[in-house]
Structures are given as structure tokens and as C-alpha cells.
Specification:
Length: 212
């Protein structure tokens, strides 16, 4: 059951991701409580969770602010993802089941339908499906240590902004990468899967940096 704190957490996180609360903006507990018609206790809990997950930071002079990311931090984060997810894709090519491949195909079909129909929440829908797609590949690698390392990288706040920075051309390229990843996994070709995954992550990095 969703608590008031978790509801506020989700909605404030979405405001941060979609830019309604921009980097560096001060988040005042009292104002959030008023906005969400809540007492300050669940707001305080939600803000603590958001800070723990890297969306907010506490500063001595400014209070609680939306975290800002430097270009170098973004580069480092995506480079780490490319290394980890490239290795995972290589492992997954040897270990992925037919059922998991079918799940990837189904998710990719859903992503492409969302893009084609262009609903109001297209970016949120794509982001959620994209995370599910990558999680299936991660699990297929059957390596808990790599999955734990990846979890910290893919849940970073800046990753949630990636699709929102894509041009139409960049979005179509991302979809093509997904299809080629599925082909590489079906062929059980780890080197192919690694190279496509690395290209996929580096393309996302440069799309995001180009939008800054």
C-alpha cells in the first residue's frame, strides 16, 4: 500500500526528472507540504529518501536543493555503465533463456507502439519500459555482483533524464540498438552483444551531454 511519504517521493522525483524542479532549486519542506496537502512528517521522510537516492542534497547555507550534475560526473557515470552493461550483455548472450528473449521482444514491441502513438506520457512510459528491458538483460547475466554494481549506476537521477534529451533521430537510433541487442542475444554472440550495448550507452551519454 502506498504511503503518503512514498507518494510525495514519487511525485517530487518526477518533478525533478522532468525539469519542473531544476538543478540547484531550493526545496522547502513547508512549501512541499502545502503543495501536496500533507503534514511535514511524510514530507521530511520523502526528502530523506530523495537525498539518499541522489535526487536532493543538503547544503549548510542553502538547505535542501535539487542535485546538480557536472559534465565530468555525467561522463564518468555513463562510462561506468558502458563497462558494466557491456560485460553483462556478453555474459547474457551465453545464459539468457528463450523466455527472457521473448520478454525482451514483447517489451520492445510495447516501446515502439508507445513511440508510434505518441501518448501524453510518452517519455515516462518509454523510460519505464526501457528500464525493464535493461533489467531483463542484467538478470540474464546471472551475476549478482555485476547486478549490484549496475544498480547504483542505472538508478542515478541523471539516467532518468536520458529519454527526455533525445531528438527524434536519437530516439530511433536507441530503438534500433534494442532490436540489434535482441538479435545478438538470439545469436548467442557475446562480442556482438557487448559492442551493441556499449554503443547504446555511449550514444545516450552524448545525447544527454549535447542537450546540456
Amino acid at each position: 500500500m502506498e504511503t503518503t511519504a512514498s507518494r510525495i517521493y514519487s511525485q517530487v522525483k518526477e518533478c525533478i526528472v522532468d525539469g519542473h524542479y531544476p538543478p540547484g532549486m531550493r526545496i522547502v519542506e513547508q512549501n512541499v507540504a502545502k503543495e501536496f496537502s500533507s503534514s511535514r512528517t511524510p514530507v521530511r521522510e520523502a526528502m530523506r529518501m530523495l537525498a539518499s537516492d541522489g535526487f536532493l542534497v543538503f547544503t549548510p547555507n542553502s538547505g535542501t536543493v535539487v542535485r546538480e550534475w557536472t559534465v565530468e560526473q555525467i561522463r564518468e557515470l555513463f562510462d561506468l555503465r558502458a563497462l558494466i552493461e557491456g560485460e553483462i550483455a556478453d555474459l547474457s548472450a551465453c545464459k539468457i533463456s528463450d523466455q527472457e528473449i521473448e520478454q525482451l521482444q514483447s517489451i520492445q514491441d510495447q516501446i515502439e507502439r508507445v513511440v508510434a502513438t505518441q501518448p501524453k506520457d510518452v517519455l515516462s512510459d518509454i523510460s519505464a519500459l526501457n528500464r525493464e528491458f535493461h533489467q531483463i538483460i542484467a538478470k540474464a547475466g546471472r551475476n549478482d555482483r555485476l547486478m549490484a554494481m549496475l544498480a547504483g549506476a542505472i538508478e542515478a537521477p541523471i539516467i532518468h533524464k536520458t529519454f527526455r534529451s533525445y531528438s527524434e533521430r536519437e530516439l530511433q537510433r536507441s530503438l534500433q540498438h534494442h532490436r540489434e541487442l535482441i538479435d545478438a542475444l538470439m545469436a548467442r554472440d557475446g562480442s556482438w552483444a557487448r559492442s551493441v550495448m556499449s554503443a547504446h550507452i555511449y550514444a545516450a551519454k552524448n545525447a544527454l551531454l549535447g542537450a546540456k
